[in-house]
User: Which sequence fits this backbone?
C-alpha cells in the first residue's frame, strides 16, 4: 500500500520510442487503468513498473523510494499476466503458494493463506488440479489467487481478463473491482477495453502512440475528452465526430456542412470564434441524439442507412451529406432503411475539436 | 452432501456450463451411424517400410537368439547347446566385472555430460555469441568416434602428448600416461566421451530452454525469485523432458559405442577399462566364440531395453515431472 509516481519516464527499444515523457501519479489505494490500443506503450509502462523492463529515462517512485534499480522480487509487487503464466508442472495450490514460498513463509501459514484465497475466489475444489485441467476462467482465477495470497504494496494487472468470453469477463470485472476495494491495495490495470477501464477504474490514463493523452476519472474522460482521439476511443458506440466549417451569420457563429447547419450560441459559440479556425469537428455521443420520422425545427435531415439492434437499444446510422451520424435510440423507432428521418440534438452535450490539432476547444 | 457442495459453487459453474464447458448428456441418439470411410491401401503403403525394418532389425534379432543357444563355428555346423552359453556367463569374472565397469563408466559420463551440458546451455542461451559458439561446440560431435579416439591417443601420449604434459605440469600425473595407469585409465576414456558428447546435451538443453515460456519466468520473478531460483523452479521443470531424451540417447550410446575405447586402451591396462561391450567384442571377434558373444549381447540388449523402457515410462508420467520440479526446488531452498 503505497503511492506510485511515474516521473518523466521514457522507454526506448533501440531507436523506437515506446513511452514518451510519461508522468502519472497514483494515490495510495487507488485503482488506475492504463487504457489504449495495442502498441500505445501501456504494456511497456506496466513492465517498467514490474521491473521486467529497463527504464530508459526518468524515474518511478513507490512512496518516496526510487525503484528504477530494484529487481522485481524487491519491489513488493504482485502481477497478473495476460496469459496467466501459471506453472504447468505445479498444482493449483502450489501455483498459488509460490510467492509465499519464495518469501520463506512457513508451511502451515502457506496452506492456510492459499485455502483462504481459494475460498474467496471459489476455486477451493480445484486445488489439486494442474493448470491443463482448468478452463480459461478457472486459470484466470488461479492467477489472481497467486496475487492475493500475500499483501503486496502494488497490484499490477496486464490485461488479465482479455482472453475470457464476454459473460465471464463481465463477472470478473465485478469480482476484481470488489476485491481491490476490499483489500485497498494500489492497483495499476492495463487494458485495451474501454468498457473495462470505465467500469473499474478510479482514474483512467488514456495512452496513444506512447504519449499520455488524458488522465482523469472515468466520468471526466467520458464526458470531457481532451481530443478527438480520446473521444473516439472511449465510448461504445463511438462518438460522432463530423467535420464542419465555421461561418458567421449576423455575428452569430454556426457550423455548416453539406447536409446541415448548426447554430451555435453561448459557450460553444464563443469557443468556435476564439481560435479563428475555419474548420471544426462537431462531436456528440450517439445517446445524446434523438431521431424521429417527423420534422422538427433545427433538426438535421437525413436518411436511415442501417439499423442495428444492441439489445435494449437500437443503433441507427443516419446518412446526411456523405457523413453518417450514429444515434442510439429505442428499438421502437420505426424508420426503415432509406427512409428520411430527422435528428435533433442538445448542444449541452456537444463537443468541438480543432480540425487541425484534434484538441478540444471548449 | 454432494448437492450442497454443488449449490455452493453454482455461481461460477453456472456461467461456465452455459458456455458449453460441461458436456451435455443426451438420452437419445441418431437412428443409424454413418459408415466411416475404409482405408485399405494404408497397409500397402506401409508394407515396404515394414519389410525393410524386418530385414534389418527383426531378422538379426532372432538370429542373435539362435546363435546364443548354439555353439557357432565357422568351420563346422552349429551345435545346439541350450542355455549353456548363458549358464557359463555367471561364472565368468570378466563378464560380471564388465557390467560393473560399464555402470561406472556410463554413470560418470552421464553425470558429467549433463552437468556441464546444462551449465553451458544456460550460459549460451541468449548470449550475444550464441550462434558462433554453438557451432564451435558442435565440432567434436561431427568427428567420427575412431578419429576422436586417435586424436586423444596422441594428446594423452606419455612422450609427446600435449595434454599429458599439461596434466604432468599441474601434478596430477606422473611419468605414465593417463591411459597406462589402472587407476586413471577409466577417467581418460570418460574425458573423451564427455568432450565429444557434452555438446549434444548442450544442444538439446538449449532447444529446451528456448521453449521455457517467458511469462512464467517473469511471473516467478515478480513472485520473488532470483535468477538461480528461477532456473530451478521454472526452467528446469520445463526442460526436464528434453533432459530425459538426452539421458536416454546418451545412456544407450554408452552401452553401444566402444570405438574410442578400442583405439585408446582396448580394454586395458589389465582389465581396467574392459566394460561389457568391449568384452563382448573380444569374445566374438577376437576369440570368435560367436555363441557366447551372442549370449552376452542378448543380456546387454535386454538390460538396455528395460532401462530404456523405464526412462520412457518416467518421461510419459506427468506426476514424475512434478516430482522433478519439486526436487529442483528443495535443492535450491
Assistant:
Amino acid at each position: 500500500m503505497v503511492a506510485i509516481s511515474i516521473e518523466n519516464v521514457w522507454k526506448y527499444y533501440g531507436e523506437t520510442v515506446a513511452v514518451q515523457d510519461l508522468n502519472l501519479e497514483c494515490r495510495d489505494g487507488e485503482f488506475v487503468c492504463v487504457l489504449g490500443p495495442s502498441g500505445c506503450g501501456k504494456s511497456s509502462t506496466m513492465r517498467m513498473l514490474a521491473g521486467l523492463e529497463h527504464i530508459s529515462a526518468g524515474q518511478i517512485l513507490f512512496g518516496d523510494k526510487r525503484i528504477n534499480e530494484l529487481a522485481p522480487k524487491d519491489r513488493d509487487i504482485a502481477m497478473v499476466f495476460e496469459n496467466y503464466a501459471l506453472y504447468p508442472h505445479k498444482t493449483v495450490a502450489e501455483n498459488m503458494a509460490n510467492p509465499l514460498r519464495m518469501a520463506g513463509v512457513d508451511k502451515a501459514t502457506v496452506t492456510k493463506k492459499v485455502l483462504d484465497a481459494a475460498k474467496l475466489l471459489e476455486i477451493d475444489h480445484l486445488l489439486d488440479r494442474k493448470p491443463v485441467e482448468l478452463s480459461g476462467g478457472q486459470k484466470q482465477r488461479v492467477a489472481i489467487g497467486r496475487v492475493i495470497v500475500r499483501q503486496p504494496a502494488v497490484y499490477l494487472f496486464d490485461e488479465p481478463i482479455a482472453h475470457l468470453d464476454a459473460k465471464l469477463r463481465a463477472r470478473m470485472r465485478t469480482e476484481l473491482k470488489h476485491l481491490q476495494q476490499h483489500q485497498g491495495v494500489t492497483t495499476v490495470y492495463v487494458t485495451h477495453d474501454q468498457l473495462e477501464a470505465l467500469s473499474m477504474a478510479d482514474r483512467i490514463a488514456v495512452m496513444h502512440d506512447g504519449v499520455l493523452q488524458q488522465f482523469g476519472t472515468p466520468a471526466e474522460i467520458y464526458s470531457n475528452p481532451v481530443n478527438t482521439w480520446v473521444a473516439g476511443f472511449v465510448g461504445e458506440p463511438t462518438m460522432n465526430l463530423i467535420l464542419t466549417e465555421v461561418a458567421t451569420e449576423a455575428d452569430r457563429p454556426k457550423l455548416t456542412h453539406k447536409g446541415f447547419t448548426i447554430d451555435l450560441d453561448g459557450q460553444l459559440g464563443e469557443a468556435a470564434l476564439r481560435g479563428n479556425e475555419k474548420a471544426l469537428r462537431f462531436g456528440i455521443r450517439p445517446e445524446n441524439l434523438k431521431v424521429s420520422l417527423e420534422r422538427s425545427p433545427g433538426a438535421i435531415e437525413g436518411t436511415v442507412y442501417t439499423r442495428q439492434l444492441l439489445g435494449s437499444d437500437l443503433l441507427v446510422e443516419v446518412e446526411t451529406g456523405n457523413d453518417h451520424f450514429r444515434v442510439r435510440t429505442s428499438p421502437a423507432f420505426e424508420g426503415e432503411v432509406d427512409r428520411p428521418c430527422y435528428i435533433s440534438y442538445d448542444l449541452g452535450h456537444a463537443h468541438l475539436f480543432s480540425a487541425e490539432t484534434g484538441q478540444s476547444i471548449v | 452432501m454432494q448437492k450442497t457442495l454443488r449449490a455452493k459453487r453454482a455461481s461460477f459453474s453456472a456461467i461456465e456450463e452455459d458456455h458449453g464447458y460441461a458436456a451435455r448428456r443426451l438420452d437419445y441418439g441418431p437412428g443409424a451411424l454413418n459408415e466411416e470411410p475404409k482405408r485399405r491401401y494404408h497397409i500397402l503403403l506401409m508394407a515396404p517400410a515394414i519389410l525393410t525394418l524386418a530385414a534389418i532389425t527383426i531378422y538379426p534379432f532372432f538370429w542373435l537368439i539362435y546363435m546364443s543357444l548354439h555353439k557357432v563355428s565357422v568351420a563346422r555346423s552349429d551345435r545346439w547347446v541350450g542355455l549353456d552359453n548363458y549358464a557359463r556367463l555367471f561364472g565368468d569374472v570378466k563378464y560380471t566385472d564388465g557390467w560393473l565397469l560399464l555402470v561406472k563408466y556410463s554413470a560418470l559420463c552421464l553425470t558429467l555430460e549433463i552437468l556441464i551440458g546444462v551449465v553451458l546451455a544456460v550460459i549460451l542461451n541468449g548470449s550475444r555469441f550464441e550462434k558462433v559458439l554453438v557451432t564451435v561446440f558442435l565440432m567434436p560431435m561431427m568427428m567420427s568416434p575412431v578419429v576422436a579416439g586417435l586424436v586423444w591417443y596422441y594428446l594423452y601420449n606419455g612422450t609427446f602428448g600435449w595434454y599429458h604434459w599439461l596434466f604432468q605440469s599441474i601434478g596430477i600425473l606422473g611419468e605414465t600416461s593417463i591411459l597406462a595407469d589402472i587407476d586413471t585409465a577409466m577417467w581418460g576414456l570418460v574425458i573423451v566421451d564427455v568432450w565429444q558428447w557434452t555438446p549434444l546435451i548442450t544442444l538439446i538443453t538449449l532447444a529446451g530452454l528456448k521453449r521455457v515460456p517467458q511469462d512464467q519466468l517473469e511471473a516467478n520473478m515478480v513472485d520473488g525469485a532470483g535468477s538461480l531460483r528461477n532456473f530451478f523452479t521454472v526452467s528446469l521443470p520445463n526442460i526436464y523432458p528434453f533432459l530425459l531424451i538426452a539421458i536416454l540417447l546418451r545412456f544407450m550410446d554408452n552401452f553401444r559405442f566402444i570405438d574410442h575405447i578400442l583405439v585408446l586402451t582396448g580394454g586395458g591396462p589389465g582389465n581396467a577399462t574392459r566394460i561389457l561391450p568391449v568384452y563382448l567384442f573380444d569374445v566374438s571377434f577376437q576369440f570368435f566364440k560367436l555363441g557366447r558373444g551372442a549370449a552376452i549381447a542378448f543380456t546387454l540388449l535386454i538390460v538396455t531395453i528395460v532401462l530404456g523402457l523405464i526412462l520412457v515410462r518416467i518421461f510419459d508420467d506427468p506426476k514424475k515431472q512434478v516430482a522433478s520440479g519439486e526436487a529442483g526446488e528443495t535443492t535450491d531452498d
